[in-house]
Write a structure and sequence with these properties.
CATH superfamily of the largest domain: NAD(P)-binding Rossmann-like Domain
Protein name: Myo-inositol-1-phosphate synthase
InterPro entries: Myo-inos-1-P_Synthase (IPR002587), Myo-inos-1-P_Synthase_GAPDH (IPR013021), NAD(P)-bd_dom_sf (IPR036291)
Family: Belongs to the myo-inositol 1-phosphate synthase family.
CATH class of the largest domain: Alpha Beta
GO molecular function: inositol-3-phosphate synthase activity
Distance between the termini: 36 Å
Strand order of the largest sheet: 3-2-1-4-5-6-11
Length: about 400
């Protein structure tokens, strides 16, 4: 999929710049896009490949060109083989798309660790932005979308004026004139120090924290309780996961950032957050597989007390990758037709969206309306208020 820069239709291609480009999610994104675009596998899980989006003018999967930043050094083909060995990817797929993995790997540049780098924030942002701009220029891309799929970082203290790594990458995306997606709970564009820059950026952006499992169920179940006038007394949950996410979320600060989005769905749909907590346990042996368990205590007619329990077992990378591809295509098309600023219409994909409803059915309706508007192919400017 990463065609030579002098390919005749190169000006119609879209760049995908992944922050955390050698992680499990990013590797699955690149591998899955190549497999789907070439017809090796069906587009299962890709909402943008369903009929309502056929007329939206989205960039083709075959037109996506990948690159990114990461602080890790392992090559993508090797990472894909590891994921196949763990059962995340089909066994023979890494070899089938090896050329695409190598092409993406060649476009990955060293990331930054602010505490280990002597450069100031303006220099770091300029260096990261230069990498993105060089990628777009060399491949003569129509545009690029920067997507944060790196490990969750703890939320910075309110009194700390420094930009965390996720916000440095977000600032670099804006400086490079790229659309931006924060698929993680990390701060990204939500840092108060970037508010003015984001408002003046002239690009579309969306986030944060992809809704792939436990919160996806909450976004369906919480409206059910509210609509049926059932009183939720308590809602507790436990997550067991391994891999990079498990290790990152073992940090209490990172776990707190993750759980904030889970609580928001309950608050928005129930009017308050019921008793109970969400616990996240790092179980390295699980790798990319996770189990999420919820226990909902609720009260019905005449005070009858009842319980609903759910168990979600899935592979986080396989759940996240198609959503990332959806978001890239939607944000790229929004950028093409002139939409700017936060896109609440994309709340369907996030635990902590930029406005809009929190119930999944309503979010899906807003997404379908957005798909229709993208098909109009008309410049729209910053019409965030209209979209709400």
């Amino acid at each position: 999929m990463s065609l030579p820069a002098d390919t005749p239709d190169s000006e119609h291609r879209t760049g995908v710049w992944l922050i955390g480009a050698r992680g499990s999610v990013a590797t699955t994104v690149v591998t899955g896009c190549a497999a789907t675009a070439s017809g090796l596998h069906p587009p299962t899980g890709l909402v943008t490949e369903t009929p309502p989006f056929a007329g939206s003018g989205l960039p083709a999967l075959s037109s996506l060109v990948f690159g990114g930043h990461d602080t890790a050094n392992g090559p993508l083909p090797k990472r894909a083989e590891e994921l196949a060995g763990a059962g995340v990817l089909p066994h023979d797929l890494p070899s089938a798309v090896r050329d695409e993995l190598r092409a993406a790997d060649a476009e990955i540049r060293p990331g930054v660790r602010p505490g280990d780098d002597t450069r100031g924030e303006p220099e770091l942002v300029a260096a990261l932005s230069a990498d993105i701009e060089d990628f777009v220029r060399r491949h003569r891309l129509a545009r690029a979308v920067v997507v944060n799929v790196a490990s969750t970082e703890p939320a910075p203290a309110a009194t700390d004026p420094r930009l965390p790594a996720s916000s440095l990458y977000a600032a670099a995306a804006l400086r490079a004139g790229c659309g931006y997606v924060n698929f993680t709970p990390s701060t990204g564009l939500h840092h108060p120090g970037l508010a003015d820059t984001a408002a003046a950026s002239g690009v579309p952006y969306a986030g944060r924290d992809g809704k792939t499992g436990q919160t996806l169920l909450r976004a369906v179940l919480a409206p059910m309780f509210a609509q049926r006038a059932l009183a939720v007394r308590a809602w507790s949950g436990t997550n067991l996961l391994g891999g990079g996410d498990g290790a990152a979320l073992a940090d209490p600060g990172a776990a707190a950032a993750k759980n904030a989005g889970k609580d928001r769905v309950l608050h928005d749909n129930l009017g308050s957050v019921p008793q109970g907590e969400v616990h996240i346990d790092d179980v390295p042996a699980l790798g990319d597989w996770k189990t999420a368990w919820d226990h909902v205590a609720f009260e019905g007619f005449l005070g009858t007390r009842m319980v609903l329990q759910t168990i979600w077992q899935g592979c986080d990378s396989a759940l996240a990758a198609p959503l990332v591809l959806d978001l890239v295509r939607l944000v790229a098309r929004a950028h093409e037709v002139g939409l700017t600023g936060p896109r609440p219409e994309l709340g369907f994909y996030f635990k902590d969206p930029d406005g809009g409803p929190s119930a999944l059915a309503e979010q899906y309706g807003a997404l379908l309306d957005f798909a229709g508007r993208l098909g109009d192919d008309r410049p729209a400017g910053n019409d965030t208020e209209e979209a709400r």
